[in-house]
Amino acid sequence: MRVIICGAGQVGYGIAERLAAEQNDVSVIDTSPELIRSVRDSLDVRGFVGHGSHPDILEAAGAQQADMIIAVTLHDEVNMVACQVAHSLFNVPTKIARVRAQSYLQPHYMDLFSREHLPIDVIISPELEVGEMVLRRIAFPGATDIVRFADNKIIMIAIECMEECPVINTPLEQLSELFPDLPSTVVGVSRDDTLFVPHSGDQLFAGDLAYVVTSKEQVRRTLGLFGHEEQEATRIVIAGGGNIGLYVARTIENRQSRTKVKMIESNRDRAVAIADGLRRTVVLHGSALDQKILQEADIQEADLMVALTNDDQVNILSGVMAKRLGCKANLVLINNPTYHDFTDMLGIDAHVNPRSVTISRILQHVRRGRIRAVHSIHRGAAEVIEAEALETSPLVGSPLRELALPPGMRLGAIYRNGEVIKPDGSLVIKPKDRVVMLAMAESVKQVEQMFRVSLEFF
Predict the structure, then answer these.
(1) FRET partner for 296 with CA separation of 20 to 30 A, picked from 26, 134, 307, 406?
(2) Is the same domain home to 14 and 77?
């Protein structure tokens, strides 16, 4: 596949790294010579210095032969114009743009992005994506990651196995015998920072991070079986009133009437504006690193500190300070991947990585075949994928035990006619089934092939 990426920041670089590793033909455009030099030096891609919306730069990057343009610069308008130029002058088939300004995303304005106006196939709003991820983490405090698939009926949760976890030191096949009515499947395990696909005879040990696929109704029971009985927070302090913080606070007001939220915002004008736009949230003006402000927000009585400013260091330090002052737990936004390895020792309970969220969203449109959703895990070591089985798929028609599945792939759940089915050796996948599975990075291409439309289909 030939792909042009406009923007060589963290998201652009992450997408280029992933696509180049899969032997795609990738061109990256950015106005910064330093970023382009870094991309050229470290990745097998072509780099071009210039504006991603300029026709001559797009032409030099190979727009006439491109299958897709992904515009993820820092400027919404550049991203939108790049897609327009790619469509009008070069007829690029698939156009993806990152759009941050919420004004563009109002439902009654969405006709703006139709083929007759601004022809963008996929709009990605990092703030909304990350806001929803934060809300899911608040709703299920025992999970370190949580993603929805199959019309929200299937959930993938990442669960840390503690010393007192009831299911450790037990073969996975035995767990299925002990809880036959539980549609939960362990599809991946991270041990000593190495991710692998477990077999039925493998056991979980204390310190493991288990990736479990289950039904929406069984998430809390599954967390309980892994020893996580944490109660959902009802007193929350949010640091940062930007787009993400405002979205989270407003959604909590709409969804959870009994949850009390206080927000700390450092910019006075912004604090006044969001206070006017929220009904029940108490908004305080000041720094989340100011101990007096934290105490004014009653941090010592709070269940959860959610740090969502645009400064990683402020998020980490305010999260640490909140716990020192008596807050039960913290959840922080961390953009810089180099900080992720230090979260445990710093006392960070959970973190959200906006870059990973955005890259996952883009990958589901890059993947070939009937891929409906993708979530990248463990710094890109694997993907949790939802795909639709076609009549021509090699998965269809035979019991699973008779299929030669790639070694780096494990099925987690099947969604059929509104029902979630736990896969076992006797299960036969049918056309139109939606399959949720984990695939290691080296097996993703094989998974794509299994769900591609072949010529006999027509």
Answers:
(1) 134
(2) yes
Domain end, chosen from 97, 124, 151, is at 124
Quick one: 118 and 141 in the same domain? no
Within this chain, do residues 12 and 35 fall inside the same structural domain, yes or no? yes
Q: Encode pLDDT of 184-195 as tens digits.
A: 999 999 999 899
Confidence (pTM) = 0.84
Question: Would you call 235 helix, strand, or coil by DSSP?
Answer: strand
- Three-state SS annotation for 207-222: CCEEEEEEEHHHHHHH
Find the helix packing angle between 10-21 and 354-366, rounded to 10°. Answer: 40
3-state secondary structure of 103: helix
| pLDDT < 70: residue spans in the chain | 369, 453-458
**259 & 289 share domain:** yes
Q: Which class for 443: exposed (0-12), middle (13-18), buried (19 or more C-beta within 10 A)?
A: buried
For residue 205, the model assigns a pLDDT of 93
Amino acid at 279: R
Query: How high is the pLDDT of residue 456?
Result: 42
The pair of three-digit structure tokens given for residue 451, joined into one six-digit string: 């769900």
CATH of the domain at 296: 3.40.50.720
Do 323 and 259 sit in the same domain of this protein?
A: yes
In this prediction, residue 88 carries a pLDDT of 93
CA 295 to chain centre: 33
pLDDT for 453: 60
Examine the domain organization and report whether 217 and 249 are in the same domain: no
